[in-house]
Amino acid sequence: xxxTQELQDLVTQVRRDILRMVHKVNSGHPxxxxxxxxxxxxxxxxxxxLKDGFDMDGIDEDLFFLSNGHIxxxxxxxxARKGYFPVDELNTFRLIDxxxxxxxxxxxxxxxVRIASGSLGQGMSVAIGAAQAKKLNGDSHLVYSLHGDGExxxxxxxxxxxxxxxxxxxxxxxxxxxNGQQIDGGTEDVLPLGDVSEKFRVFGWDxxxxxxxxDLDQVIAGLKEAKSRTGKGKPVCVVMTTEMGNGVDFMMHTxxxxxxxxxxxxxxxxxxxxxxxxxxx
Amino acid sequence: MTTYTDQGKQDTRSGxxxxxxxLGRTNPNVVALCADLVGSLKIQTFxxxxxxxxxxxxxxxxxxxxxxxxLTIGGKIPFTGTFAxxxxxxVYDQIRQSIAYSDKNVKxxxxxxxxxxGEDGATHQILEDIGLMKMLPGxxxxxxxxxxxxxAATLAIAEHHGPVYLRFGRPKVANFTPVDQKFEIGKALxxxxxxDVTIIATGHLVWQALIAAENLENQGISxxxxxxxxxxxxxxxxxxxxxxxxGCVVTAEEHNFxxxxxxxxxxxxxxxHPAPQEFVATQDTFGESGTPDQLMDKYGLNNKAxxxxxxxxxxxx
Lengths: 281, 317
Prior knowledge:
The complex is a heterodimer. Helices cover 38% and strands 11% of the residues of chain A. Chain A has 10 helices and 7 strands. In chain B, 40% of the residues lie in helices and 20% in strands. In chain B, helix 1 packs parallel to helix 8, helix 9 (205-218) crosses helix 13 (303-315) and helix 10 (236-246) packs across helix 11. The model of chain B has no long low-confidence stretch (mean pLDDT 98).
C-alpha cells in the first residue's frame, strides 16, 4: 500500500498531466479536474478494491462512475497512472482518432471507463443500476460515483436520490464535488443549491462531509468512513468541499478556469507550482 | 392470395407480457423495470414470479433509463417498460448517452405507441418515436404486428446483444401470424406474393394491408404484401427484390410520414432502384382523442387508405 508521500507525489504529477493535456489541445476543463485530484488519487489508490486488468462487468471489484464527465483530464490521468492504459496515451487527449475523447466514453473501448458521461445528471442513475446488479449477483463490492455540485440542478439526480433511498441501495457511495462554481458563476448565484447535505439527508441518505477535499489525508479518511457506513440500509453521500483549480494559484477562487486552457506562459507558471515527481508522459 | 385467419383479437402489449413471462422462466439475466405502468405493460406475471428481478422506479423515466444502463454492467439484460411517448421523446438524451453511445444491452419496450392509444389524446400518442429511435447509431428498431409476433420479438431481443427499441400498442387487433414463427431481427416476411404493387407495412397496419390486398385482388390488382417488423436494420434486399418486380410501392405505418418506415424505404429505393412510392402515415400532425378505429379512419391509417394509395401509385408507374 502506497504511503502518503507517494500519493502526494502522484497528486502533483496528475496535476501536471491535467495542465499539459488541456494546454496541448487548447481545450478541456482544468478547474474541476485540479479540484478533484486528491479525490481521484485517493479513490483509485487507497480506497477502491480493484482487480487487475479491465472488463466491463466488473464483477468482484468496486466500480466507479464519473457523472460530471467534463473533468475527464483527471480521470484519464489517474486511470493511466493506475495502469489501465499507457501513460503516453495522455498525449492524444481530444485529438482525432483518440480513445481519450473530450468527455469519457466506452465507444472507443478505453479501459477503465464503463459509461459515457458529459451530458450532466445521468451518472447517479447508472451507478444505482450497477449497484443493484451487484446485489443481484451476490457481489459485496461497492459502487462509487462523483457528481459536480452544479450538476445537481439537473432533475434526474433527484429522481435517482429518491430512488436510491427508497430502495435501500446501501452499496453506493455518491460524492458531490462542492466547489461552489459552475460555468456562469457561483452555484449560489446561478441557481442556489443551498444545503446540499441536508437535502440528501431529508431524502433518506446517510451523509458525511469532507471539509477540505484538497487535503489528501482528509479525503482518504472521509472515503474510508463512508465505506464503513455502507450495508446499513441507506445509500451514502459524501459532500466534499474543494477548491476549483487547486494547486495553481491563479486558477483558484474563480470559475474562470472551468473550461479554459492556459497559455504557454500560464502553463509554465502553473507547472512551476507543481514540480515533476513521477515523470511527465 | 394467401389467406390469413384471425386467431382472436388480442393486444400486442399482451404479447409483450407473455414474452416477459417466458423470459422470466428461461433467462435468469433478464430483469424488468417499470415507471408506474405495470398493468398497462402486462408484466404482472413476470413480477409475481421474479420479484427480485423487477424494479419499480415510479414516475421517473429518466432515472429508469439510467438504472437500466447500469444494470447491464454485471451482465443483466434490462427491459424497460412505459408508454412509447415516455420511452423515447421524454428520455431521448438518457437513451442517447447512457444507452446507445455507451452500447448498453438495454431493451426499451414501449407500449401504447401511435394513435391507437385512443381517448387519452395527443399528449400520449407519439407518432415520432420510430424516427427518434432509428436515428440513434446502433439502435435496433422493431414494430411487430400482432400478439404472436410481439411475443416472439420479445424473446428474440433478449438473445440479441445491443440496445433495442421494441414498439407495440394498446388496442386488441387481429392475431394472425403463426404461434411458433421464429422471429429473425432484420428479416422481412413475405405475406403475399404479387406482381403489380408492393405494400410494405409495419405494426398494426400489416393486417390492414392484407385486407387491402384482398380487396385489390377482387379488382384485378395483384398486390405483394411484406411485413417489415424490423425498421432498423432494414431488410433492403427484400424491399429491392419486390419493387424491382412490381415497379411501385405503398408503405403503411402508424407513425408520422417524416422519420418513419416510409422514409427508410425511400432511402433504399432512391439509392438503388428509384420507383414511385405513396405513404400511408400521419401527415406531420399530432393526434387527438377518439376511439382507435375512428382515429385510424380520420388519419388515413386503414385498409381503405392503403387501397386508395395503391390506386394512386399505380397511375404513376
